[in-house]
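Run: sequence + flavin-adenine dinucleotide -> complex structure.
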Amino acid sequence: MTSDFLVIGCGVAGLSFAIKAAAHGSVTVLTKNKVLNSNTAWAQGGISAVLPEGLCDEGDTIEKHIADTLDAGAGLCDEEVVRTIIEEASDTIDELVGWGTKFDRSDDRFSLGKEGGHSARRILHAKDTTGHEIASALLETARNTPRLTILEDHFAIDLITTGKLGSVTEDRVLGAYVLQQLTGEVRVMRSDRILLATGGCGKAYLYTTNPDSATGDGVAMAWRAGASIANMEFVQFHPTCFYNPAANGPEARSFLVSEAVRGEGATLLNEKGEDFTPSYDKRGSLAPRDIVARAIDTEIKKTGANCVYLDVTHKPKGYMAERFPFIYKTLLEFGHDAEQSPIPIVPAAHYQCGGVVASPEGTTSIRGLYAIGEVACTGLHGANRLASNSLLEGNVMARRALSDILRRFPPGKNSPAPPIPDWEHGDTAPPDELVNIYHNWDELRRTMWDYVSIVRTNKRLRRAGFRLRNLHREVREFYWGYRVNADILELRNLVAVASLIIDCAIRRKESRGIHYTLDFPERHQHYQHDTIMRRF
Ligand SMILES: Cc1cc2nc3c(=O)[nH]c(=O)nc-3n(C[C@H](O)[C@H](O)[C@H](O)COP(=O)(O)OP(=O)(O)OC[C@H]3O[C@@H](n4cnc5c(N)ncnc54)[C@H](O)[C@@H]3O)c2cc1C
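>> structure
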């Protein structure tokens, strides 16, 4: 199967690119799950944008949004990229509205929320299910767009490049090996223009706010294909994930209580009912996420408690049901009434700030391979992402990547491709080996949680690295020995991504942004640039 554009990923980044690209050629969009199984569809809080004067918060400016983003990024943002993306935010909102997204309004204007790290109200939202609203509007548009095909349950295994086929004089993409999960068949999908939009890697950790699909496949595939990867040590932990020890199933374990709840006045309390956050930062509960997550982690370790609490009980009755209906209803389903008693919460892995090194146009170190959205490291987030900047980045970058591709690789002008070998299947894994796969999944995620999470030390990182080397060996045996399936492929990708997180973390000899190490507790001691991993 050949298409002008092959898009791997069906979240905000992949779909907004695909809708626009279909005006210029045939587009195939792959998703390894069903279409609404993405970080995008799970996003709650909203999308940040400074709207034109008269529509934005009084006194808010693009310069302030840029300053807040740079402040959160702790000296590692690329200022030019930040400016470019933020200046295009208002146009992006127009585009999303044009595709049918319905943001909340009051008095005929968009109602704007506030989140941690933002100095003004500038978050457009659709109640507390903004991501679902955006994803549904994009899907509806995509389904009505000619020349655009979405293939569900199609798992991209690896990129095919001239370099991988042995060329030493050029390295460009030719396509991907794709597992059709319903039949078990692996097909070659050809394209000279591939967009990686596979999202993040929250599933590398035991506790995460991400859906099961977030296994870092794009970073792992790009790394195996020879692309450069950067800043993987910067994994953002969301401070407020519902703590539910009786959890049954991933949704119950990963339920996020949006930052917007704190933006609207909720406070964080310890077991004694005291607001402990002002002793960690003068902004209290509204300090940036890394500071709040570390404060909670420290408080939990100091007191030996299992969790801390997010208190909204002072709000008028009915407030939660009106402003945050999805969160309120879901918590009720888990047996907790947020209007009656404070919500038990813990921090959890949430967002991957690093990723495949990509220019402000989404180009990577491999010709024809573009990376946008959470999988990419463009320089917008630096050492820590400002809340609600990622849906924005995904949509803006889609536009920028497409105009670059059209200029450099216009559809219809394909380069001759060398013959691509068919996929070779291994044998079926016996059931006792399957147990090992699940065991390795658990071991990996617990190792990352215990040794590579909010507070790090070189000793813990090295210990994790040692365990990862063993897992590498075992996973290689599964991968080459048995017929591939989604579990083996995701485990293989998680091991690759977890190793990159550890390697990057060990290389960073300072605490910066969301990388905090007790070996260098003074922040920004030695100025370090991006942690770039290259393959030779
Ligand atoms: C609970 C939660 C709340 C959030 N709230 C906000 C918020 O309020 N504001 C904000 O800006 N951001 C928020 N974020 C972050 C934001 O949602 C994501 O960063 C953003 O949606 C990522 O979009 P994406 O298109 O890059 O990836 P995703 O939306 O994650 O999409 C990735 C796609 O790639 C597919 N895929 C992955 N691997 C493969 C493979 N091997 N083969 C085929 N397909 C593959 C997946 O199936 C999926 O379709 C939140 C995230 C979570 C988890």
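>> summary
The mean pLDDT is 93. The radius of gyration is 22 Å.
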